[in-house]
Amino acid sequence: MNNLRSHRPGGRPRVPLTALFAISTLFLTGCQDGAGTSNTANIQHTETTEHNQTKRFQGNTSGPLTNTADSFSKRSPANQTLETPKTLVWSAPLTREDGSSLAIGQIAEYRIYYRLKYKDRFSVIPITDTSNTKYPLTGLPPGAYEFSITTVDAEGLESRRSESVEINLI
User: pTM of the prediction?
Assistant: First the structure.
């Protein structure tokens, strides 16, 4: 015992630094949070979980929880990205080609002209609901398309085609 302590000139014992470190380490390891686990364990668990998630998102499927986490991520709406279909959107014209006004009630339909870029002929999609100025591009086979729109008035006169828009549907 005399080796661990030495006395100061005033008679008080001096404790070596290594003994203080060992006592403080024991005290810190004994500290627990309200759940009865040590803070050190929580931090290590969090780091391990974050590490496994990082590996999973990078495409690595190794690790003890990967299969459970991967099957969960496939079912979890938070991890899924929903693809929104591409949509053509246009504004109803306010004037005719000659510059005279065109009321919304005078529009009979819109016509969407489309084709695959490597084809010569256009196909037509008539839109008779003139309050609808958007069209989702669903049901078309994948490819590079060209779209343009015309307006047909109540008398059957059709406008020139709008400028073409090129859209890749993959």
Answer: 0.52
| CB proximity list for 79: less than 8 A, separation 6 or greater | 73
- Among 72, 36, 39, residue whose Cα is nearest residue 53: 72
List, in order of start, the domains of the chain with CATH numbers.
Answer: 6-79 (no CATH), 87-169 (2.60.40.10)
Per the structure block, which two tokens stand in for 123?
A: 């196909």
One-letter amino acid for residue 16 of the chain: P
Q: Measured between alpha carbons, how far is 69 from 97 in angstroms, rounded to an integer?
A: 60
How does DSSP classify residue 82?
Answer: P
CA distance 121 to 142: 17
- What span, in angstroms and rounded, lies between the C-alpha atoms of 68 and 48? 15
Give the tens place of pLDDT for each residue, 115-158.
999 999 999 999 999 999 999 999 999 999 999 999 999 999 99
Dihedral of the alpha carbons of 141, 142, 148, 149, in degrees to the nearest 10: 40
For helices 66-75 and 39-57, give the axis angle rounded to 10 degrees: 70
Question: Identity (one letter) of the amino acid at 43?
Answer: I
Question: Quick one: which H or E segment has residue 111?
Answer: strand 107-116
Q: Any residues with CB less than 8 A from the CB of 133 and at least 6 apart, and which?
A: 89, 90, 91, 92, 110
Question: Cα(127)–Cα(21) distance, rounded to whole angstroms?
Answer: 81
